[in-house]
Amino acid sequence: MAETMEKGTISINTENIFPIIKKFLYSDHEIFLRELVSNAVDATQKLKKLASMGEFNGELGDLKIEVSFDKAKKTITVSDHGLGMTGEEIKKYINQIAFSGATEFVEKFKDKGDAKDIIGKFGLGFYSAFMVSDRVVIHSRSYKVGAEEGARWECDGSTEFELTTLSKEQRGTDVILHINDEGEEFLDEFRLKGILEKYCKFLPVEIKFGTKEERVEDGVDKDGKPAYKSITKDNIINNPSPLWTKSPKELTDEDYLKFYKELYPFAEAPLFWIHLNVDYPFNLTGILYFPKVKNDFEMNKNKIQLYSRQVFITDEVKDVVPDFLMLLHGVLDSPDIPLNVSRSYLQSDSNVKKISQHISKKVADKLHDMFKKDRADFEKKWDDINIFVKYGMISDEKFYDRAKDYVLLKNTQKKSYTLDEYRTYIKDLQTDKEGAVIYLYTSDANKQHSFIETANQKAYDVLILDGVLDSHFINTMEQKLEKAQFRRVDSDTIDKLIVKDEKVESVLSQEDQDKLKSIFEKAINNASMTVGIDSLAPDHLPVTVTMSEWARRMKDMAKTGGGGGMYSFMGAMPDQYSVSVNSNHKMAQRVIGAETEEQQIKLAKQVYDLALLSQGMLTGADLTNFIKRSVDLVS
Question: What pLDDT, on a 0 to 100 scale, did the predictor assign at position 505?
């Protein structure tokens, strides 16, 4: 029978600490299990460390940590076979809340090898147990020689505790939670299993949660076929040696792909990955995977998991990972990322910024290596990775400087060029009289097909820039590239997009040009359409409907989060178009030559509607009327 050793008051600054812990210190009550299991791992790792340094010569034995629950008794128990504690140590480490056993341990053994694998603090983390418990009991027996008697500590969430002796056969600690009414949701196998898999999936000590049945071969049956039997095994819920803790040299592509499936069971295989392993000026390990990203830029973030010495912390990593890499998948593990007391939220400091910059550099270097080693394979992957590269170049000056040598521009012939290669390719033909190189592009090759054809007829090249970020990317390129202007191929007639000194003369007199303009204005009768008469090549389209590059780009920027101010203002403005009537096309002469004004307007309306139809802008009643008019004209 236990003998009462001591009763006392826990050493804290205020008697209000427990309500603070319960309501404010931890935002999510399920964190209690992470903290208790982390403490158990901590105690186990410490014992292993002492054994490796010759400070403990006993048998280590089975070091598994066990989590169990009893629904009838309303208890959850976390047991380990680590260091254990004497009564005096319980008073020191448990009663003095702010004291960190891990800090003292590292300090004591800092010159005896690597003590960095100490997870956490047996202090405030332990007290998270009171978020879900009416009463917490500790049974513990120290590893120390002469400490054969165990200790029992009990507290009901007030500042009073009871400490007694205890007969305990095995070294280690059992933390027994007597669950309160609000915490009954945790007395459930699937709930506990889910929490353990979320926070403890990669802890460095095996964690047992119940048992499982497994079929194993047991000789052969009477027909000579393999016979099987069922055996009961410990259900180990974690992988103590995850891939990021190993050296890249000992891993194969298959290992990385298998680990990706472990992290994201239903995801498509990644394109490639980066294994991080830094020990100076900060500690950082991890694996980042490049997934296939759809062109509609689905911002499916929270796919990178942050760990601290294999303890899951959060998947909110926006301060650690540069914003343009938030679409990556994988894990990061760093003990040097500062966390608040609940270990759930990052705190910004210089280390976080350095880690973010390092990750950005590693990604840039990896992409550069891929480009240099196998350009053909890099070009195949470009459709999937260009969104990362362009986003990085838009948002990160240093990344731009690294990526400008391997960012690719793809044209309508599906050929890819670097920035320098493409400038050399187009500069002779696509330089205007001001000396600016004009980069023609399409954002929708099908919709803008006729404009692309016209450009190609003049031997001009057209880029495909149809991604959701490309309007922002174009703006960045115009700022960075010397004497460069980007023009969407349908933002004006091709003759105006690349202005040369030569000019085509009109076959119509000025009087006929004015008359032609008047006819089209009457036929269109739309304030958002500004009619102009242009002298273009006879084989150019009779009518072209365009929106200015500037106005359309402002609208595109507004749609993709270009910010406030001018972008938002332009996004809210009604669309304004230019209607270019080719005075040298035979249709212009036919319109002027029609016998009546009604026929003139009818013909003008027809060719105007054709221009709209070519761009998918003719809909509803206008489309119906166009079809009827076409039938009449043919008849």
Answer: 81
- Looking at residue 5, its pLDDT comes to 67
| Segments of 357-420 assigned E as strands | 408-410, 416-418
- What interhelical angle do 470-480 and 549-559 show, nearest 10? 120
Residues 278 and 319: beta-carbon distance below 8 Å: no
pLDDT, one tens digit per residue, over 298-309 is 555 558 998 888
Q: Round to whole Å and give the CA distance between 489 and 548.
A: 11
Domains along the sequence of the chain with CATH: 4-209 (3.30.565.10), 243-376 (3.30.230.80), 407-503 (3.40.50.11260), 504-548+556-562+571-635 (1.20.120.790)
Pairing of strands 577-582, 529-534: parallel
Looking at residue 138, what is its pLDDT? 96
Q: List, for the chain, all residue ranges whose pLDDT scores fall below the cut of 70.
A: 1-5, 9-27, 96-124, 294-302, 338-349, 500-503, 559-573
List the 272-278 sheet strands across, edge first.
272-278, 284-290, 329-333, 304-308, 311-314
CA distance 612 to 546: 10
Q: How far apart are CA 368 and CA 198, in angstroms?
A: 35
Specify the pairing of strand 529-534 against strand 484-488.
unpaired
415 burial type by CB count under 10 A (0-12 exposed, 13-18 middle, 19+ buried): middle
pLDDT of residue 633: 76
Residue 403 in 3-state DSSP?
Answer: helix
Report the 3 state secondary structure along 585-621: CHHHHHHHHCCCHHHHHHHHHHHHHHHHHHCCCCCHH
Find out whether 41 and 205 touch, Cβ atoms under 8 Å: yes
Q: Specify whether the CB–CB gap between 84 and 93 falls below 8 A.
A: no
For position 105, what pLDDT does the model report?
47
Strand, helix or coil at 131?
helix
Q: Check if the beta carbon of residue 462 is closer than 8 Å to that of residue 441.
A: yes
- H-helix segments, 470-559: 470-480, 494-497, 510-524, 549-559
Per-residue pLDDT, 99 = 42
- State residue 114's pLDDT score: 47
Taken in order 73, 74, 80, 86, the sign of the CA dihedral is: negative
Give the closest residue to 22 by CA, choosing from 163, 130, 175, 133.
130
Give the CA distances from residue 167 to residues 1, 75, 276, 431, in Å, rounded to whole numbers and listed in that order.
8, 21, 48, 90
The DSSP 8-state label assigned to residue 543 in this structure reads E
pTM of the entire structure?
0.76
pLDDT digits (tens, 9 = 90+) for 512-538: 899 999 999 998 888 888 888 888 888
